[in-house]
Each structure stands twice: as C-alpha cells, then as structure tokens.
Amino acid sequence: MSTTTYLSRRQEHLLAAVAAVVVANAYYIHPIIGEVADHFGVSHARIGLVPALNQLALALGIFLLLPLGDRFSNRRLAILFATGQTAAMGLMTLAGGFVPFVTGSTLLGFFTITPYLLPAYASKRVAPERLGQVTALIAAGAILGILVARVGAGVIAEQFGWRSVYWIATGLMVLVTLTLPRIMEHGERDSTAHHSYPALLLSVFPMIREHREVLLSGIIQALNFGQFIALWLALSLYLTSPSMGYGTDTVGYLAGIAAVSIVSTPRLGSWADRIGPRKARSIFALVQLGGISLFWPMGDTLWMLLMPLFIANLVGPGIDVTSRMTFLTLRPDLRTRLTTIYVVLMFVGGGIGSVTGTAAFDAFGWSGTCIALAGMSLTLSLLASFGRRFGQ
C-alpha cells in the first residue's frame, strides 16, 4: 500500500504562484485594449473579439481537455498545457497584424487549463483537514495574477508601450514552463481505466445526474463570476462617462482593491474547514448581497464606491472556494471531470455577465446595473441557502 506524500508549504506557495502567472494572461488586455486597437487600426467593436474569443476558447478547452485529468497525470497535463500557453503568448507578442494577435489570444484561452488542474492535483496531496486552506491559497494566487495583470499592464503600457506587457508575460510563461516539472512531483500514475476519449467526455453528463450538488455549486459560481464581470465592465463605463469624468487609469488603480482577497481568501478557506463549506458559503453570499445593495446609494462618488467594492472583493472568492470544496472531497478519479462541469458553468456565467453588465448600463445607466447586480446576488444567496440541505 502506497503512502501519500503531502506537499510541502513551499510547494503549496509555488503552485499558487504558478496559478497567478497562468491566470494573469487573460487579463492583460483589459486596461490596454484601446491602445491595442489603435496599434492594429481596428475599431473598438472589433477589438472586442480578443477577450470574447479568448473566453469562448477557454470554455471549449475546459470541456474538451480538462476531463483528461481523470485519465492522465495532472502533472503531465499541466506541463503540456502550460507549454501551449507559452507558445500562444509568443504569437501574441510577435504578431505583426490583428489576425495573428487574435489567433494567439484564442489559442491562449484554449490552453488555459493548468490553473484548473492545480486544485485537483493539490487535493490528492494535502491532509483532508487542510483542503480548504490549500484550495484557497491557490485561488488567492489566481486573484493575485488578475490583480497584477489589470493594474500592472496599464502602468507598464503607459511607460513602455503595450507590446512590452506581452514580452514580460511571455518571459514569465517560459519560466513557469521550465520550473513546473520541478514543482509538481512525479508519482502520479495514469488511470488504469481505459476509457476512450469520446467516452471520457460523455461520462461528464451522467455525473451531473449522479452528483447534483456540483450542478448547484456551478450555477452559484456562475452567478458569482457573472456579477464580478458585469460589475467591472459597467464600472469602467460608469467611471469614464461624462457624469463621472475619470480616466481608464483610475479604473485600473481601483482594481487594486482586490488585494484584500489575497489576504482574506486563505483565512476564509480555513474558517470553512471548521464550520463546513455549505454553511460558510451561505454566510458569504449574504455578506456579498449586503455589499452589492450599497452600490446604488453609494455610487455618486468614487470614495463611497470603495466600501461596497471592498465587501464584494472580501467574500466573492470565498464563495468560489467553498463551492469547490463541496465536490473536491469526492473520489479522486472524478474530481477533474466534476471540476469541468463547475468551471464550464462558471464561464457561461461570465459570458452572461459580460452581456448583462454592458447592456444594463447602456439601457438604464448605473442604476439599472445596480438593480441587475442585486438580482443576481439575491438569486445566488437563495441558492446558497438551499445548498445547505446537501450538508445535512
């Protein structure tokens, strides 16, 4: 009988750093999208293809590639997909025209699978009582990556041009690709179950019936991620509108408030280990609802917006962590495919949130956006409260 070798604290933190680098790649474009459009001579509507196709390719890649984690070594797949990301980043960095650039961005999304393999890999190598803490640590790494990408890209592009952002990002991916084999230890064997690839993909759907809670958790996270995307897109439009008069740099600096999540998320994960993920999630959802309800009355000034933004960023990642905890304790050979269901639903929610945030602001202004966000958050809270029944 083999003995499980647990990850060292150093390895846990290095996996979180890897998550930061590989997740950041999708967010560099956000603050510099106008500058990239001007460089390639395309309209702002057409440059929207870059993030849109990236997200669609990400959802497709998760569905087609992530289930392989239940058949093949998570370590082997993580290294392979990180290499694919590195190549895609190189294409974006060297692209001389818009088509190669958007092609690189689309391929980047398709190969962004590594951050979703890391929690499953770690869950097999940590003590059960530390699952929430380590899952939260990796989530905090991803949050850090988003934060650095959104704030740092704008600053670097302002000083050195947008292309320098992608040179740095490509260099970081080369470093990750070279060091990942040392961070993730050997010892994980491929599954002995010889399912064909189509059978492996199709096996995802019966799991939804067998493990209904993963569907609920995925819908909850879809609402959580969707309102996050809707909020920041609408907030960017609102702050740069004539009524507010701020520049895009202000939006980037405001994104720095997400730093609170880096500190709070591991602690919230540890707390969820003690009281249970379903109870913790319902509490986080209610706190988030309270914060989101403040956006309308406090939306007149930038400084007043800081309070609801702080609350939303404080507990939002905790909802993701606790939702993952509801199925990461199940059989190891199922976890990657269950994660597939969960993450695909999350990005569907992100797509809906992208449309909701911009459409609500365009039609009804900031007040309409706040109403839409409150409706999403209320629905999330009700579902989280219902989800506590699964833990009884």
Automatic annotation (TrEMBL):
GO terms for molecular function: transmembrane transporter activity. PROSITE patterns: MFS (PS50850). Keywords: Membrane, Transmembrane, Transmembrane helix. The keyword Transmembrane applies. It comes from the Bacteria. Residues 1-392 form the Major facilitator superfamily (MFS) profile domain. The keyword Transmembrane helix applies. The chain crosses the membrane at residues 12-33, 45-66, 78-99, 105-122, 134-153, 165-184, 214-239, 251-268, 280-296, 302-319, 340-360, 366-386. InterPro entries: MFS (IPR011701), MFS_dom (IPR020846), MFS_trans_sf (IPR036259). CDD domains: MFS_NepI_like. This is MFS transporter. It holds the Pfam family MFS_1.
